[in-house]
Amino acid sequence: MNWDDTAQPADDTTGRLVGSAADGEDQAVEAALRPKSLAEFVGQERVREQLDLVLRAARQRGATADHVLLSGAPGLGKTTLSMIIAAEMEAPIRITSGPAIQHAGDLAAILSSLQEGEVLFLDEIHRMSRPAEEMLYMAMEDFRVDVIVGKGPGATAIPLELPPFTLVGATTRAGLLPPPLRDRFGFTAHMEFYEPAELERVIHRSADLLDVTIDTAGAAEIAGRSRGTPRIANRLLRRVRDYAQVKADGLITQEIAAAALGVYEVDARGLDRLDRAVLEALLKLFGGGPVGLSTLSVAVGEERETVEEVAEPFLVREGLLARTPRGRVATPAAWAHLGLTAPQSFGGGGSGQGDLFGA
Ligand SMILES: Nc1ncnc2c1ncn2[C@@H]1O[C@H](COP(=O)(O)OP(=O)(O)OP(=O)(O)O)[C@@H](O)[C@H]1O
Ligand SMILES: [Mg+2]
């Protein structure tokens, strides 16, 4: 499963149980559930191995680690990894984000107050302002910034030496980073969606921390509905825990997990009500497509943007829906998932015979 940099982030309308962005409750519990070391960090084997080498080598040399770029969809563990990098280097960490840095001066103030070896975590680095970005180039490469004093023709640039530091940048959209910025990172970690077995381990680990009892089948049931995303797995676990506590004796089994998530309308594959409404309209009203986005949106009673940015990315990723120049098309897997049979004349939706409906 690859994270596609050009895709829209599967970002979310608030309150969506399978939304990948953090909501208020997530933020409150995430600190408690964050792995604190690379060894504790589940999955992402390749990234872990590479990062382990980078950090170990820097430690052996007694040097500050190279700058690291973390790219991947929301909820896959970028913030968590940034904190792990600092912990593994036994270095303090300073946390800020692209949108918080409006002016180059904001960045200069942060950079000039860093201690030697400190980790600067710059979240949403693709949303930094242009002048700040240019200041960052020099800071990353030469550990120096030019502070501009005065205005107009009398303005002078005073060079300021910085202590060596490690910049950890995070982005959901690596494709949006200007190449000069991307090139200044010594190591880029592309985080991918997690396999179900990895999510099961995340769930067992979180259950232990939350003092919840869950059996193997229960964890597997939640993992299968978590859209490859640890944040969603943790969130679903909390909802299933509520259900197990109120309706049963607290133990989470496969039946309990399935029943609980049924209440929340998250189906066996992690689709929620909106996702299913889009698929159902595509199959039942338009025979599997192709159908234009606007028409599909009207049929579902949602805004175009909601269908395109909230529902579709996951449906495409799951191979249930395809975007074609002539419109949206359901795949054979979509028919199977909703338990419907594709009409003969549409050959499962992709045979290009959808002209009847226009695109
Ligand atoms: N590999 C992992 N092992 C265990 N838990 C994880 C892992 N990755 C993420 N998590 C958990 O998932 C939650 C979300 O992770 P995190 O906040 O690091 O995501 P993120 O990539 O920074 O998301 P965003 O793009 O929204 O900032 C955290 O509670 C964290 O504990
Ligand atoms: Mg984050």
UniProtKB/TrEMBL annotation:
Its EC number is 3.6.4.-. Residues 195-265 are annotated as: Small ATPAse domain (RuvB-S). InterPro entries: AAA+_ATPase (IPR003593), AAA_lid_4 (IPR041445), DNA_helicase_Holl-junc_RuvB (IPR004605), P-loop_NTPase (IPR027417), RuvB-like_N (IPR008824), RuvB_wg_C (IPR008823), WH-like_DNA-bd_sf (IPR036388), WH_DNA-bd_sf (IPR036390). It catalyses: ATP + H2O = ADP + phosphate + H(+). It comes from the Bacteria. DNA binds at residues 304, 323, 328. Its main location: cytoplasm. Residues 64-195 form the AAA+ ATPase domain. Mg(2+) binds at residue 79. Residues 1-22 are annotated as: Disordered. It is found in: Cytoplasm. Keywords: ATP-binding, Cytoplasm, DNA damage, DNA recombination, DNA repair, DNA-binding, Helicase, Hydrolase, Nucleotide-binding. ATP binds at residues 33-34, 75, 78-80, 141-143, 184, 194, 231. It is an enzyme of class 3 (hydrolase). One of its GO terms (molecular function) is DNA helicase activity. Residues 268-359 are annotated as: Head domain (RuvB-H). Has 3 domains, the large (RuvB-L) and small ATPase (RuvB-S) domains and the C-terminal head (RuvB-H) domain. The head domain binds DNA, while the ATPase domains jointly bind ATP, ADP or are empty depending on the state of the subunit in the translocation cycle. During a single DNA translocation step the structure of each domain remains the same, but their relative positions change. Homohexamer. Forms an RuvA(8)-RuvB(12)-Holliday junction (HJ) complex. HJ DNA is sandwiched between 2 RuvA tetramers; dsDNA enters through RuvA and exits via RuvB. An RuvB hexamer assembles on each DNA strand where it exits the tetramer. Each RuvB hexamer is contacted by two RuvA subunits (via domain III) on 2 adjacent RuvB subunits; this complex drives branch migration. In the full resolvosome a probable DNA-RuvA(4)-RuvB(12)-RuvC(2) complex forms which resolves the HJ. The RuvA-RuvB-RuvC complex processes Holliday junction (HJ) DNA during genetic recombination and DNA repair, while the RuvA-RuvB complex plays an important role in the rescue of blocked DNA replication forks via replication fork reversal (RFR). RuvA specifically binds to HJ cruciform DNA, conferring on it an open structure. The RuvB hexamer acts as an ATP-dependent pump, pulling dsDNA into and through the RuvAB complex. RuvB forms 2 homohexamers on either side of HJ DNA bound by 1 or 2 RuvA tetramers; 4 subunits per hexamer contact DNA at a time. Belongs to the RuvB family. This is Holliday junction branch migration complex subunit RuvB.
